[in-house]
Amino acid sequence: MKKYPFSEIEKKWQRYWEENRTFRTVEDPSVPKERRRYVLDMFPYPSAAGLHVGHPEGYTATDIYCRFLRMRGFNVLHPMGFDSFGLPAENYAIQTGTHPRKTTEENIDRFREQIKNLGFSYDWDREVSTHKEDYYHWTQWIFLKLWEKGLAYVAEIPMWYCEELGTVLANEEVLTTPDGPRSERGNHPVERRPLRQWMLRITEYADRLLEGLDTLDWPESIKAMQRNWIGRSEGANVRFPLAPDAVPGGTALSGIEVYTTRPDTLFGATYMVLAPEHPLVPQITTSAQADQVQAYVAATRLKSDLERSELSREKTGVFTGAFAINPVNQEQIPIWISDYILISYGTGAIMAVPGHDERDWAFATRFELPIKKVVARSLQEDPREPLEAARPEPGFSVNSGAFDGLPTEDAKARITDWLEEEGIGEKTVNYKLRDWIFSRQRYWGEPIPLVECEGEYYPVPYDQLPLTLPEVEKYTPTGTGESPLAAVESWVNCECPDGSGRPGRRETNTMPQWAGSCWYHLRYIDPHNAQALADPEKLDYWLPVDLYVGGAEHAVLHLLYARFWHKVLYDLGIVSCDEPFTRLVNQGMILGEGGVKMSKSLGNVINPDDVVARYGADSMRIYEMFMGPLRQEKPWSTQGLVGVYRFLDRVWRLTERPVTEDEPGENLLRVLHKTIRKVTHDTDELALNTAISQMMILVNELYKEETLPRSVWDPFIRLLSPYAPHLAEELWEMIGNPAPVSLAPWPQYDEALTQDEQITVVLQVNGKVRARMEVPAGTDKATLQTCAAQNARIQEFIEGKEVVKVVVVPDKLVNFVVR
Ligand code: ANZ
Predict the structure, then answer these.
(1) Mutate to test the pocket of ligand 1, among 239, 262, 333 (most ligand atoms within 8 A of CB)
(2) Which parts of the sequence belong to the Methionyl/Leucyl tRNA synthetase domain (predicted)?
(3) Which of 408, 601, 651, 814 matches a 20 to 30 Å C-alpha distance to 273?
(4) Whose CA is nearest to atom 27 of ligand 1?
């Protein structure tokens, strides 16, 4: 018999599915909402490198799941598309002059081809690409809705700017080097410059983004990351007056407001720290300290917030020369500046409590500032005994006047009440979440559909969308921090959309790559609609997404942004559910052989095309699922891949045997029903590796037969179909069934037949039968011996005696030889 001809088989069935549009989905009103499923993959950025083995991992899992659901009668929406705006194509355009559209579309063609070669059951009629005009028409439409709702605004924001490249850089394009921050491209110096940016008010949705998490079936780790990112904290704002004679011009200034989550530690505040950018800094700095302060402020401009917040970094700072007054005890305390205080959080100023905050402790010890204990571990602890390290844990207030003895939580509440009564502070909630910087000074993105006219912005009318990207001469930035679009005079200059005939200037910033992926789950539902983002009835039928699968690298930003837009669209009445993705699964990373990261430099990158060419798509699919649990990280193993190929080859060779209408033997029937049960449950749970093992067990059983009983072979082919769809279609056709098996009903199992046959085993002591026990047929020796030793009758006979030997004959007897 000829070798398993996977390549022919795979081409044949891919053509069949395509020609027959086997996996096309329509909103079928006869299928109720409970029996429809929306299963979504995170769509890829079509990079020049093509597909890597990480892509097919998630795609195979969802494909198996979707095929399984279809066979069980569900109406399944399973689309694929491309996140096709983005930096690499633009950078390539800067270097070569090739239009990013050309590069991008070539890459998309290659990706599509590679994805199709793996036999995924996507409904290709629904393919979307975010860079296409009929797609970004609606991205712009959503932007205008955000703008109308007051959720988009302009602000001056410090951005990384590179003089040499003449452009603004994203955080990930800036490297920290010993010579300061440098551009990743070209290693040029960069600095932070305030630039005009479009912002989206995601902070207005902070509480809802937080609360919504409780309703989602997502990995706890991802929810925790989102919670941390949103970073809601409760505390108090407290105003510290300036010491009038210790501050230049002190009496004219109102004081320093701080945000603290620990108002209970107010008596322990021994100094204050302002962010170097704090507006009070130049006003309170004494002339003696001015030079040092200015130098420090300048140095801070070169640092990112991330770098500044690193806990392990040695603390730096400078004294301003000024003093404030602690309002609880009227003590004069010095005011410092330091870069670990961020201007963008709270009030940009803190009261430092070195006794109970680790960063403050590090700072105070470095600069020899006083440390006071104001929280004791217990009421017995001596309040005078000094601290040995910062003690952030709660306890009982000490050295805190009238609040002494209160447990931390009570002290927080009581001191906050007191602050409010005195009018020097109030309860405050803060979020780490910042508004979203939504503009990019780039060419290859969605134009922001606004026109500026005499200092005001006007929306491009809805009937003039999409506002298309003009062709440009060159993609290099203008050198002014503006996007290359600013150089296209004929596009930039236009009439003000308000009908006044005044001259206007188009917004030249474009949207970030995140924009398109914020709502693609909606466009798949009705991708060709020219009148609306999607038909409301179709949105209602399919939403929310039941299962969303993708990499954990999108744990925060993409998932938060997409949830934010979805909630805004919910408020606008466009969608009727306020969370887009009910269940989220992150596939684990695939590492290189030996467990190291796959990387070009290590030369251990596996190319899916090579695997498909050598072993076939079905082998690739099953291997990636058989490597280990979907959610876990796992190393590539060529040996493992060969093993899977052999398994499929063995399945193929079974066709050498005649298919008969004979009843299968009892054992084979039992294995079949167990297999159906396990594959059904495991596929449903996405435990795909164990489902595959069980199919291997059934194949081994079939090898013990001389013929293939149709009543076993037929359901086996159905089970195999989601996993190795090409081979399954071929086997199905070979036994004369009408194609496609991909849409044939899923096999049923009989619970009774999945139970192991029970057998009576006799239990003997010194050869005499003393008891009997019922066990599943085929129970192994060790289990039999353990169970027998626990039998009460047997225990009576062997108690106090020495067991010299135990004879175990599976399915028959256990004999204890005692002395
Ligand atoms: C006094 C204090 C005593 C603090 C103590 C902590 C422990 P979260 O929980 O993250 O909200 N803080 C306030 N604004 C800051 C800023 N702009 N940059 C850096 N740190 C800032 O943290 C709030 C705490 O972080 C605040 O409470 C403040 O230090 C500091 F035993 O105030 B705390």
Answers:
(1) 262
(2) 43-175
(3) 408
(4) 260
Rounded Cα distance between 575 and 145, Å, is 14
DSSP 476-539: S--SSSS-GGGG-HHHHEEE-TTTT--EEEE---B--THHHHTSHHHHTTSTT-SSSSS-HHHH
Model confidence pLDDT, tens digit, residues 373-400:
999 999 999 999 999 999 999 999 999 9
Alpha carbon nearest to ligand 1 atom 32, residue: 260
Domain locations in the chain as residue ranges: 142-201+436-506, 233-430, 758-818
Could you identify the atom of ligand 1 that is nearest to the CA of residue 352? 1
Which residue's C-alpha comes closest to atom 2 of ligand 1?
Answer: 262
Distance CA 36, CA 70 (A): 9
Token code pair at residue 234: 């409760």
How far is ligand 1, taken at its centre, from the CA of residue 772, in Å? 71
Q: Residues 711, 702: contact at Cβ < 8 Å?
A: no
pLDDT in tens, 720-752: 999 999 999 999 999 999 999 999 999 999 998
Residue numbers belonging to the annotated binding site for ATP: 600
In words, the CATH class of domain 758-818 is alpha beta
Supply the residue whose CA is at minimum distance from atom 14 of ligand 1.
Answer: 346
Pocket test residue of 315, 350, 419 for ligand 1, highest count of atoms within 8 A of CB: 350
Q: What's the CA gap between 452 and 164, in Å, rounded?
A: 29
Residue 268 Cα to ligand 1 midpoint, Å, equals: 14
Alpha-carbon distance of 394 to 408, in angstroms, equals: 5
- 233-430: CATH superfamily: Valyl/Leucyl/Isoleucyl-tRNA synthetase, editing domain (3.90.740.10)
Q: How many angstroms is it from 64 CA to the middle of ligand 1?
A: 49
Beta bridge partners of 771: 763
Q: Interhelix angle for 688-703 vs 710-720, to 10°?
A: 150
Helix 638-653 to helix 725-734 angle, to the nearest 10 degrees? 10
CA distances from 664 to 237, 326, 398, 757 (A): 78, 88, 81, 16
Residue 742 in contact with residue 721, Cβ under 8 Å?
yes
Residues with CB under 6 A from ligand 1: 233, 259-262, 265, 340-342, 345-346, 348, 350-351, 353, 356-357, 392, 430
Residue whose C-alpha is closest to residue 115's, from 726, 630, 609: 609
The answer to whether 761 and 772 are in contact (CB under 8 A) is: yes
Alpha helices by DSSP H, 37-162 = 54-71, 87-96, 100-116, 133-148
Distance CA 808, CA 817 (A): 11
